[in-house]
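input
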Amino acid sequence: MLEVMKSVKKGAEPRAASPKPLLKQLAERPEKLFSGAFRQQYGALCFRYRKAAAGTEGSEIEILIVTTRDSGRWIIPKGWPMKKKKPHEAAAIEASEEAGVSGTVSKHPIGRYTYLKELDDGDVAPCIVDIFQIEVEHAQAQFRETGQRIVDWVSPDEAARRVRELELKSLLVDFHPRRAKGRKKG
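output
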């Protein structure tokens, strides 16, 4: 018999199930999608180099993914714009708060994806997430959302397999770190 183990999040309370899936809610109110009311978010595609397996050359990358606090879906760290913070700074703060990582942040987005966010009031908001690359140099065991999320380092293909958003899947599979100027320690 196979047992399924679930990680219990510190202070987590069971959340009432949504009466309808997000796509069904949006289908009933398509004006949400076409009203131009997309909300902006900033995400962090955090990566690190690991040595290649014995007998191979070069190094491979691993990508950091985290679970959402509510449903436990796999995502990359992301969040809303912050007052007096540039987009890449907000992405770096989200990475620190959600996964305890910091490093060199690209000042320019490397891509974007869209998704439907279920708000606390049950409403649905279409969001656009601009993604900033962060080469992770430091990781802390304790961080702001410790116990609220699961953090994992995986290959780009595995990260793409775990996330739900199709555009994000594509970005993860095709990700090659940029070594251009316009980067800042974050």
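quick obs: The domain at 22-177 is CATH 3.90.79.10 (Nucleoside Triphosphate Pyrophosphohydrolase).
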